[in-house]
Amino acid sequence: MSQRRERSRAIRLIPTAVVAALLATVAAIVPAEAASPAAGQGTVNQATTDSGTQEQLTSHATSGSDRPAAQPEQKQALASEAQTCTAPNAEGTAVCVQETRPADLPARLAHSSLAAEAVDPPQWCEDANGIILGTRTQICLVTGLTYTTTRTVNGTTTVTGEADMVVINYSYSDTGLPTFAHQIELSMYDGWGDALNASVDGQATLSGACTLDNSSFPAQPLLPLNSWRSGEAFFDTTATAAGAIGTCATFWYLTFTNAGYPAAVTDYQLNEFRCDNATVGRANVGCVVPWYASELVYSSASYPSLASHVQQAQASGLPGATFANPLTRTEDDTIIRTNRNLACGDAPSITGLSCDEYPIARSREGLSSGGTRRTFDGCQMPNVSSGTGPTGVSVCMITATENNAQGGLNTQFFRAERVLDGDPFRVTVS
User: 382 or 117, which is more confident?
Assistant: First the structure.
């Protein structure tokens, strides 16, 4: 992936003179809920009505959104590689398309030449072979695709060609913009026979609280080998009113056409982005991957007593350090107050120190959800015993200035990553 040329992620604007006609075309074609287009329907183009300056759509990678992770429970993992085939036409020809896991994926990606229209996906896309990987602002899925042509004569079916491809689905958003993108690329790395004569085009559509800004995937031949055929689409959220939260799933439908053969359509859906105008302290709308557990980092150099307590608490079995076992944000003031009172309501009064609880009070994993308190040597909590296990909280008297600073660190993190009520997040120490 590193050998592929990067290009600025810019929203391309279409001249306003063609806006009305294009909007009418899209209104007739793209439904509010995604539906498969007719075979060979081709590309949809919708213009933006924004006449302002061109905006840069770039992934704002913060300290909490730079390490990719798989979607929880792997619900998006490549299934049983089911094959979809058309019925033979009057001439007895038919085609099949089948998702696969391409072998030697890094080589497939590196040896293909980048299409000029495409944004270079991140290096970690190489690991997204059959599963969706993501950060707080990016999603990637790489799969294989086999396109097969057949001819049936007198009841006997013969394979007349095959094309093996790698397909990259890549979406990216921005925590400070109401727009996100879904790009699809494919490259044929092997093939023979009639399948080599095929062309592919694409149509983008959507489902949820968003509109199609513009998309482009014109018909392109699969040949030559190891060259990219690409399409990209930009979407705008409709969750822009104060307090609004909305999700949007995006789809690409690829149509393979080949003279003498029926057209074949295959579709790709990528995860939903969530966009909101409900993040406290953010005056703008932004979009994120809601299932991604961003990382709240406490520096042991800057906050040694806070960091030490978090490390001891997590080592005793309390959750929050990993993607597999994150904490869950709560914005319920009653839960937050209950968590704090149950954890530190009887803390001793010691000059220069204050009571710290872990998991943090602004998580659903506090004592409001049950469990008991635990502490450690040197924490100066005389009424609390030691303990282990995944439930309950740890309490410790730490430096008061560090504890006071922790509230600001948490607030900045939730704001920057747009972590809303119910979102997962991690807590780590650097």
Answer: 382
Query: Nearest-CA neighbor of 102 among 112, 94, 93?
Result: 112
pLDDT per position as a tens digit, 331-387: 999 999 999 999 999 999 999 999 999 999 999 999 999 999 999 999 999 989 999
* Cβ(302)–Cβ(271) below 8 Å: no
* CB 372, CB 392: distance < 8 Å: yes
Q: Is the dihedral of CA 410, 411, 415, 419 positive or negative?
A: positive
Q: Closest Cα to residue 256, out of 199, 218, 215?
A: 199
The residue written with tokens 């994993």 in the block is 365
Counting DSSP H helices and E strands in the chain, the numbers are 5, 20
Vertex 368: Cα angle to 363 and 372 (nearest 5): 105
- How far apart are the two ends of the chain, measured CA to CA in Å? 29
Q: Which residue has the higher pLDDT, 115 or 223?
A: 223
The CA-atom distances, in angstroms, between 358 and each of 255, 297, 345, 355 are 53, 14, 14, 10
Rounded to an integer, what distance in angstroms lies between the CA atom of residue 299 and that of residue 308? 10
Note whether 275 and 282 are within 8 A (CB): no
With bands split at pLDDT 50, 70 and 90, how would you rate the model's confidence at 103?
Answer: confident
Neighbouring C-alpha atoms within 13 Å toward the C-beta of 20: 1
Q: How far apart are CA 180 and CA 138, in angstroms?
A: 10
Helices (H), 62-150: 105-110
Return the domain boundaries, the chain. Answer: 16-288, 294-429
Tell whether the torsion through CA atoms of 275, 277, 280 and 286 is positive or negative: positive
pLDDT of 10 strictly over 60 = no
